[in-house]
Specification:
Mean pLDDT: 79
Number of strands: 17
Shape: elongated
Order of helices and strands: HEEEEEEEEEEEEEEEEE
Structural class: mainly beta
CATH class of the largest domain: Mainly Beta
Number of domains: 2
CATH architecture of the largest domain: Beta Barrel
Strand order of the largest sheet: 1-2-3-4
Helix content: under 10%
Length: about 250
């Protein structure tokens, strides 16, 4: 009888687990999903003919867009599928990375541009590669890698975008890192913002409310904050200092 009850329990449990996940649709391996669009969009690029197909959440076709690339170029990657990020209108926008084989020099010529759902070219990033969208001081910025004449990566370009951020919770807001420590009060970790000149490094020191030195960190200009582990800190008020700047934070 014990075995029968155990078998019944396993069957019921198995059915319960199956009910947690439901297959909606099996889609092609080349179909991707937008991660920063306000609406859910699936998309697929066809290098032959340079056509991009966008799908609605119910998998019906939203748009079929032919990208007007220069002769010999074909799409190798599309990215940053979104709306209200690069533009203020409601049209879907996206970046296109394309290549053309140059037999004379035995290497690929490359192109990185911004288009909308109608196939209109919005911007040419030049000798660049795919980058990141983030928020600074209440507006979007786009940062991408730049290449020299020999296609060697040598710098980064930062662009100001016209749209007003509506996706701030899912995109790191660098402006918040320059104002005050957060989260404050803290329990396990806290972000301590700082601002120093380019090419400079210095010490950031942490003190207890009684003036006792708690910790010392080396900071550099490549970043604008450190993430401090305070899980072993006693509850109370603390201060951090660097150069002639100082601020305080609270640990619960």
């Amino acid at each position: 009888m014990k075995i029968s009850f155990l078998a019944l329990f396993l069957v019921v449990t198995a059915f319960g687990l199956e009910a947690q996940v439901s297959l909606i649709k099996n889609i092609g391996k080349n179909i991707e999903h937008s991660s920063i669009s306000e609406k859910s969009i699936y998309y697929k690029a066809e290098p032959e003919g340079n056509v991009i197909t966008f799908y609605n959440p119910d998998f019906t076709i939203y748009s079929e867009t032919t990208i007007p690339l220069a002769d010999g170029y074909s799409i190798t990657r599309i990215d940053h599928v979104s709306e209200h990020v690069f533009n203020t209108n409601a049209k879907v926008e996206f970046t296109v990375y394309s290549e053309k084989w140059n037999a004379a020099v035995m290497e690929y010529e490359k192109s990185f541009k911004l288009f909308d759902e109608e196939g209109t070219e919005l911007f040419d990033f030049g000798r660049a590669s795919s980058g990141d969208v983030y928020v600074v001081d209440g507006s979007y910025r786009f940062q991408c890698g730049k290449y020299d004449a020999s296609w060697v990566y040598d710098s980064e370009d930062v662009y100001q975008l016209a749209a007003i951020p509506t996706l701030a919770p899912s995109i790191t807001s660098k402006s918040a890192l320059k104002s005050s420590a957060f989260p404050n009060p803290a329990v396990d970790y806290i972000n301590l913002p700082y601002s120093i000149e380019n090419g400079v490094s210095t010490n950031l020191t942490i003190y207890g409310n009684n003036g006792q030195l708690i910790d010392n960190k080396r900071i550099g200009s490549d970043f604008s904050y450190i993430r401090l582990d305070v899980s072993n800190y006693k509850p109370g008020v603390y201060y951090y200092k660097y150069n002639n700047e100082s601020s305080k934070f609270v640990v619960k």
